[in-house]
Description:
Helix content: under 10%
Structural class: mainly beta
CATH topology: Maltoporin, Chain A
Strand content: over 45%
CATH superfamily: TonB-dependent receptor, beta-barrel domain
Shape: globular
Number of domains: 1
Order of helices and strands: EEEEEEEEEEEEEEEHEEHHEEEEEEEEEE
Amino acid sequence: MAQRRFGCLRCIPSGARHDGYAASGLRLLRTTSLRFTLHGWQRLSYRGSTTKADDYKAGEDFKPAGPAAAGREWLDGDEVGSTMYKSTNHSLDFGMRHENHLLELKFGVQDIPYQGWPNQRMDMTGNDSNQVNLHYEGEFDWGTLDARGYREHTRHKMQFFDDKLFWYGSDTKTTALLDGIPCEPSGGMMGCAAGMPMDTEGDNTGLVVKTNIVLSERDLLRVGAEAQKYQLDDWWDPSGRGMWPDTFWNINNGERDRLAAFSEWEAQWNPKLLTQLGLRYERVHMDTGEVQGYNVDKYGVEADAFNAADRKKSDDNIDLTALARFAPDATSTIEFGYARKTRSPNLYERYAWSTGGMAMRMINMTGDGNGYVGNLDLEPETAHTVSASFDWHDAGQEQWSLTLAPYYTYVNDYIDARRIDPADTSTDAFVYLQFVNQSAHMYGVDISGQQVLAENTQYGDFTASGMLNYVRGKNQTTDDNLYNIMPLNALLAIEHHTGGLTNVIELELVDEKTRVSQVRNELQTMGYGLFHLRSNYQWKQVRFDFGIENIFDKFYNHPLGGAYLGEGKTMTGTDVPWGVSVPGMGRSLYAGVNVTF
């Protein structure tokens, strides 16, 4: 790659370029980065990347082959619809360092022209984001100061992309409505709808200041403050049929502003014992303007009730942390902790207002295919967690290690969901839900370890590693299981290293998922095991990457993949079959080249 010049004195360029390819569905990645050091203390760097992917394929057929929807292209039986995407990112960083002070200015631009969502009824058909970050870090006699200010503007669009039905109805004005035929949008059940545009515009501005104050050789005090101003508009332009003739305002000038102050005292009582005590206070203020539906007849009553309600909400949240770490000898460390964490509802949990079926189906952050409506009476959820960690290792921490970390969490006012219609007891259909406060608890354990098997042999070095995770979540108000909880899973790996070559063989094991959220009709999944192979070779300034994921092309459904909504007539409530999970990716090969200079 030719060296680029920017007209500076004593420029020392460095950078990287990465080109890659992956198959199971075509995925392409191109990354370029450049870095310059000016006068030894100034830094200018650029990084750009473009990724593009077609729909990927599962390990076997999981549905009938055929057109994705009326007027759409053909999808094979193993092709997972709405998994295509394209994304371009650019970032420009400028840094200056003088003695013990660092100043950084970063600019970022993101363009996502499309991204399919296989577990959502809509796809993303545009996402443009601009970010600015200013960061200062300084060291003083009394400690350190860290400050960061940021500004982000995002313009976001949702619509039905290539694998989902776009044209609903026709302009024939007869009972023989034909989907998938371009027509002039018009209102009424005999009309025609050109998809369902959903637009969002958001601004996020904030400032974070943190200090580390050395009180003594034993004591360190961390003090900081944070402010964030977040504003969001979410509107749906009229597109025909029932979505006519006005603009649907889902969230109008929504605000979620935060002010916080925090402090933490850390004490190193002796070489073996360390403690931490932390306190954080945060005030969250939320509000939104008046809303309206597509028309008064269907949405007027609910819109009027929402507009007449008190929409201003302020939460006073307090977080606490306490930790003690004890190292009795060179081969073990024991840690006990308590944490209280509070989360206020987001804008959609509080302010999504319509119980119309179509509108509710568009409010989904979980990938379960159900419809949701917000709740103005939601309280912040507060989680209390007690945890422990037991770590054993060799004295040099180079040959072996084993870590055991159990935990228990109780959540007061946990934000879960209940069915809008208490009489709806269906177990094999998509349902309509409202966010509500309930009580819940979770407990589990994380286990990880590694062991050097052989070193300095004629074939290189060999290391084994593994981790195991288990978590159980229960709604204590309803005795239901919590949604989207990963079942017992493990990852085992053998790593081989010789010269510039590194090889890793992995075995991923996931247990069956039978404990599912009944209120959401969450889908059960079978257990599975997958093998992966990853390799890279470093030769001077060039690194070659190669890998095969899911070597044996095994079919599986990931427990957190959600319900399959990747094709068809997804705007309606009953035309997409219930009971199909989003399958995992089949055999996938990737290769890449990374060049630094």
